[in-house]
Amino acid sequence: MDLIGQLLHLFVSGDFWQLALRNAALLSLPALGGVICERSGVVNIAMEGMMLTGAFFAVVAAQAWHNAFLAVLVAAIAGGLMALIHAVVSIRFHADQIISGIAINIGAIGLTTFLNAKISNFQGLPQVDLSARLPQVNVPLLSNIPFFGEVFFQQNIMVYVAIAALVLGNIMLFRTRLGLRVRAVGEHPQAADTAGVNVYRLRYGAVIVSGLLSGLSGAFLSIGIAYIFNDNMTGGRGYIALAAMIFGKWTPWGAFGACVIFGLGDALGASSGALSVPLYFLQMAPYILVLIVLAGLVGRSTPPAADGVPYTPEAE
Amino acid sequence: MTAPTAPPQQREDAVRPDIAGWVRRAAKAMAVPIGSVIFAFLVGGVIFAISGSDPVLAYQAMACGGFGLFCFGGETPALQVANTIFFLTPLIAAGLSVAFAFRAGLFNIGVQGQLIVGAILATIVGIRLGNWPGIVLIPLVLLAGIIGGAVWAGIAGVLKAMTGAHEVVTTIMLNYVAYNLLKFLVVNGPMQAPNSSAISLPVSQNAQLPTFIPANSTFFGQPGGVYHVDWGLLIALAGAVLFFFIMRRTALGYEIRAVGQSQRAARYAGVSVRRTIIVTMLISGAFAGLTGALMISGGSLHYLYSDLANDSTGFDGIAVALLGLNSAIGVVLASILFGALHAGGSVMQSDAHISGRIVQILQAVILFSLAANFLRTLKLRLPGPGRKVAEPSGEEAVQDEFQAEVSSAATDIDGKA
Questions:
Q1: Residues A258-280: pLDDT tens digits?
Q2: B window 18-77, beta carbon within 8 A of A
Q3: What is the CATH topology of the domain spanning A2-296?
Q4: Which of A134, A299, B27, B193 is the most exposed, having the fewest neighbouring CB atoms within 10 Å of its CB?
């Protein structure tokens, strides 16, 4: 009874939902990247590594130029370059995309830790200074609305970027000719090729976009939330985004829904002081919830038909 | 339990082993992984040179740390070899876990969680029954770990078989449940050891695997206690033998491989795909749970610690399985390499002052070149059994795939390369 009261109290607090939305937005960027990438037929389990690379280079760039915008740009490019490796290996060389993805994730830990030690002489990079942090932006007027204003319009700038990316990504995938082609390439590349669609170019583009978005998310984490780079600081968030993508059945808003569940769980963990439940059970909650949903309601999710199948024109 | 149509080649194989053919196939299968490793070391040399370190010195330190060769920093070679064995033992078991699931076309990305649940149960048994004699207790500890891992992975298997829930999602979710369960138990929880933080009590002496080098002896000028080489190595190797036996000599193994090649074809052949998925995940989880038990009963610590949630053994197992082409022998060989790299990295850091993490870049390059098969692109294409890139569709494909599975039953050391 007491617990229900505490939870209700939490659920009507703007702070709580603000935090939940921020965490959801952080995860939704790589999840959206994964959706676009896999819709084009390239399996991507490498969001973790791309995110970590973005997080590291954001801090390095912030240190160098004291400019958050440049740091975000560098992070996106760094993520995009990692994605380019995945693209070349899996599209040009027809590699097993799981192996390539795992290689990106391991390589990103190695690369960032190695460079971190090299640059800072094993001391670790210092905190990001104020001028290079991603700011919170309060939307004029709207942010004054009680509750909703706090949740939706007093957020870090990257939250707006993430929501905009979701809207645009969804429109791109399902309302434009480009999106139709991306999906065609992921479902039946031979047919798309016959119809004059350039399979390789679309797949390269989709993989690189997933890297750009994951890199953005990494920058959000390192210079928008933590203000410092720690080795392996993404701590599996890329894998959570991967799960969100599959749970959301390879749709942007479905994936975002899953991200909200995980974001709520993170926010619950952060507010555990206000609750009389052991912290670690709270943090388990979103994962158990997803398992229950999978067991009872959602069930089977079918990937794009050509997901993970390298394309060669000669075949067939 | 019996497969309806036993492949004729396999039966013949069992009667009259074709040794020369086997060697030829093995050499062919290993050409790409070995080439990938060489390629990675060349790339690594370039990275060392660019970052202003001496590649020769770096590799010398790595050879010392990995295999006790060419040491120059006063290390004891035998101890370096022991360190490599210490690292590679859990890698074998974790790699077998991932590879086993891959054979059925399942991606078990949750070995870390399964390993943790196994370690938790192993620790509980090792503490609670601490005064039982080792000959009874150690098998019980290992069994507890195996059961823990099997149950944890089994949840994902049942969900996959019953509702079609994607095993990548469910095993990732189960990872996080396991991490939090571990932290609940050892961070100010019921299993936290008194007057300490975030660790449990160690399991009793009786629950610890015997070591090859007695602690009170002196071995190569070092006290025996610093060598953590225990029976875990033999148990992990026995696991590899069991893996090989199940895959190649039982109807279950045949069914698993059939499901891995094509679920539809397997169904036509009368295999229960659901049952195979569940059994595969149970066995895959059992290997993962064994990994956890070996890390508690063997190794150096013998207790639970909260950082086990950030440990990378489970994820390294994925890399080991992939490099080992999902075969038992391949997993063992890949574990030796990754174990040596891991051990070599730390010596490189102390002797050559290069971050030991560079070995992870090497691991990544190995996997890239393995996956991309750069060598094949450099070399002229070998005419060989066609590696189908795009799957054909329809009834014909089912027939084709089934034929392919039957005829390749003997040569599947190639795995999913």
A1: 999 999 988 888 877 777 777 88
A2: 51
A3: ABC transporter involved in vitamin B12 uptake, BtuC (1.10.3470)
A4: B27
DSSP string, A42-103: -----HHHHHHHHHHHHHHHHHHH--HHHHHHHHHHHHHHHHHHHHIIIIIS---HHHHHHH
Is B379 near chain A, with CB under 8 Å? no
| Side-chain half-sphere CA neighbours of A3 within 13 A | 6
Q: Count CB atoms within 10 A of the CB of residue B384.
A: 8
Q: For testing the chain A interface, which of B360, B365, B387, B416 should be mutated: the one with the most A CBs within 10 Å?
A: B360
Whether B76 is covered by a domain: the verdict is no
Q: Please write the tens of the pLDDT for every residue from B46-64.
A: 988 888 888 888 888 888 9
Q: What is the pLDDT confidence band of residue A298, given thresholds at 50, 70 and 90?
A: low
DSSP characters over A282-299: HHHHHHHHHHHHHHHTS-
Spatial neighbors of A251 by CB under 8 A, at least 6 apart, are: A35, A170
Q: Is B390's Cβ below 8 Å from some Cβ in A?
A: yes
| B362 neighbourhood in chain A, CB within 8 Å | 110
Domain count, chain B: 1
Q: Chain B residue closest to A116 (CA)?
A: B355
Of B174, B319, B371, the CB nearest to A106: B319
Domain with B276 in it? 107-211+225-327
| Mean pLDDT along residues A177-184 | 94
Range list of H helices, B8-54: 8-15, 19-50
Q: Is 0.80 topped by the overall pTM?
A: yes
Predicted confidence at residue B417, as pLDDT, reads 32
In a domain, B132, yes or no: yes
Q: Is residue B196 situated within a structural domain?
A: yes
Residues A178-187, mean pLDDT to the nearest whole number: 93
Per-residue pLDDT tens over the stretch B73-119: 778 888 889 889 999 999 999 999 999 999 999 999 999 999 999 99
The domain locations on chain A are: 2-296
Shortest distance between the Cα of A100 and any Cα of chain B, in A, equals: 6
Contact yes or no for B318 and A309 at CB 8 A: no
Structure tokens at B354: 């290069």
Report the percentage of chain A scoring pLDDT > 90: 58
Q: How many CB pairs under 8 A join A and B?
A: 177
Assess B350–A contact: CB distance below 8 Å, yes or no: no
| Shortest CA gap B100–chain A (Å) | 16
Tokens of B138: 């150690």
Tens digits of residue pLDDT in B372-392: 876 665 554 444 443 433 333
